[in-house]
Fold:
Amino acid sequence: MILTKFVDELPIPPVLKPQWKDQLYTYYEVNMTEFKQSLHSELNDTTVWGYEGSYPGPTIEVEKGKIVFIKWINNLPDKHLFPVDHTVHGAHMDVPEVRTVVHVHGACVEWESDGYPEAWFTKGFKQVGRYFRKQIYRYDNCGHDSTLWYHDHALGITRLNVYAGLAGFYLIRHQQERLLNLPSGKYEIPIMIQDKTFNKDGSLYYPKQPDKPIPELETSIIPEFVGKTILVNGKVHPYLEVEPRKYRFRLLNASNTRFFRIKLGSGQRMYQIATDGGFIQHPIGVKEIMLAPAERAEVIIDFTNLEGKNIIMTNDAPAPFPTGDPVDENTGTVMQFRVTLPLSSVDTSAIPAYIMPVPKINEQSASKIRYLTLNDNMDKYGREFMLLDNKQWDAPITENPKLESTEIWYLINLTTDTHPIHLHLIDFQILDRRNFDVEKFNKDKLIHYTGPAIPPEPYERGWKDTVRVNPNQIARIIMKFGPFTGLYVWHCHILEHEDYEMMRPFIVIR
Structure:
């Protein structure tokens, strides 16, 4: 199905208003419901799930260091929009089909409010998972000013819940950011990029079976999901009318599996100012930005002197990444900017030469080094599934960092996919990536490097919470664990991998 591009305007999610707010606290209530929404004017309205009646959900804006309470309320129907595979961990027949738990991705948060995958709840909190602790979550917002996002994290059905529409932006702001004089107000726009596939009637398609169906199972998990159409903020190939001036865009890849390598058709540079975890030290001019699922980047695009021009944001990342199919005319296009609005006032915003210090964590300060593998396996149905450190979700916890300690993790990729690995609670820094001999490692468990250490890409040199670990490479990350203790998770953010065993708990201990 080919839908006409650039016929619908880019929607900008509304900013959510709190129920109440005083000097100390802010309180929100957020309802999850099923509703119909137009995702393209040539399609029938599509049934989706969303927060507060919108997909993507409304943007939640908070102040750094201010305490926010949110009651996430599940008002979804009992039947799922998509087929559920009951052979997947956490999704067996002994749990309700529809259950949710919200994770604010990148949040510095107590574990009881982190959205632990087994802390799920149903409509009216009638049934809850074994790690459910509270109805009202508390967010201390102790991280940097940054672009975070919230999405569902229920064990075994995360891929289905997020695909149904359960995702939104969560922005942490700070006085320091206002002093930078970046483009702001209507010149600052969040951009959530996803891929989906539609049925003829406009409904969302999600496969019941992999390419080689499993005859014993009515519904089977698939190794990856790659959609045929690109949506931005819940619209297929939208356009945005802009003035000939600078704009700040907060880019988020919220797809299940698809990677995006973003470029501008005009060939012009984008000025990156932030990574997942907040501002970088100096803006960098980049011609392309790679975003794996869950990664964010903030960029300033300057449309000055481009009156009357149309600029297309393109994507050329193969899917699955890095050895999958190349993009086609649909998946190679993201959206269009039309420089057609008159300049409403002189553009006095700036691209600062220096933003803020991002001190490097010293490798010598690490008290522990962990070697953790990314593994490929087969289940009893002959389906491929991925593991972290060759352990399944239910295996005893082996990662138990001490509060305030610094660790270096060697993420050793023994698979043929690039995996975006995400750690909850903390931000880390990427030290390097290095090619190594996979066969030798599999045989002798010895790391034999086959090339020099490759420093992180310029656009990754800041605070990160998600790192791309490429095939035949070891990625090294360094981080300090805190400020909370308790139970968190780390996982691959390809949601089909996360749902089928590529996720592990870790516990921060006193």
In short: The longest strand covers residues 25-37.
